[in-house]
Amino acid sequence: MILHVTTERGWRGGERQLLLLARELGRRGLAQQIAAPRGSPLAFRASAAGLEVVLLQPSPAWHPGSLVALLRWLRRHPGALLHSHSSPALSLAALARRLAPAAGVVHTRRVAYPVRRAAKHRTAADRYVAVSQAVADGLLAAGLAAKRLRVIPSCADLETCDTAVASSEWARVPPAPLVGCVAHLAPEKGLSVLLAAWSEVATAMPGARLLLVGDGPERARLERTAASFVPDSVVFTGQRDDVAACLKALDLYVQPSLAEGLGTSVLDAMACGLPVVASRVGGLPEAVADGETGLLVPPGDPSALATAVLELLRDPERAAAMGAAGRRRVEEHFTLERMVEGYLMLYRELLGG
Questions:
Q1: Could you give phi then psi for residue 67, rounded to 5 degrees?
Q2: Hey, where are the domains in the chain?
Q3: Looking at the chain, which terminus has fewer C-beta neighbours within 10 angstroms, N or C?
């Protein structure tokens, strides 16, 4: 029995990856449940998918009630494995394991930030999973023993991408280039850099539009910035449930992140056959093959970003070839099946088969 544990109250790439993993493990007959904050999108979506959910307290992340919920669950399922998917969840799982019988703790780290509280990350879990080599390097630099670390890349949602139909919501006559980014609107996503670059793109290519899919704390400020120097060419869609349909409407995908563990939105864009322009930071160079599936630029450089975007918009044939190569790269390296097999091997290692 596996209990996936997260304290995240929003819906971002990590929560979507957790749900993809749990659904596929369920299809393969693995006994598992998900512990998630009450009222969170993950708790709702997991329940709707037929997965059993253990409800945690929504705030704060280390709420004593959440620890009690984990302890009660462990006492009903002695010898189960805890799999944490956020840093606060790792603390909860490690403490619960000390107070009740458990087979062990697995922790997945999805961010490429420097590791804080390195001592905790060296001792709290039996095995650590990094979603990219860049994330793994951060854990190793913090002193984690290599024998306790596995790299299991995140996956693209090929099934959803293949069944989605391109949205016609932003179609224009005559057709105009549509560039997009799917992201949590937070500083580390580099969207201010993208807007600065977009002023150059919009000047050089009138009629082109930029689609920003997602929501977050930076939205109001970004909307003010867009209105000040790129009016009428930037669309803020807010949170969407039809992200694949949005992606399929694009001509080019851009990920201007200043920090990125791997970039699941990039993987989905590649699965939809899109060429990608991305920052050379974190795990993004592991996702995007520079010059083959897209172009990589220095992080925080609006001029370099604008130059790369214009280069591909002006060469549709090259862009289409990159999009096709990106799809092949996803099929070879970033499938759900490949990710699930990696976790199954790790679970078997800890549970003795």
A1: -60, -45
A2: 2-155+335-351, 159-333
A3: C
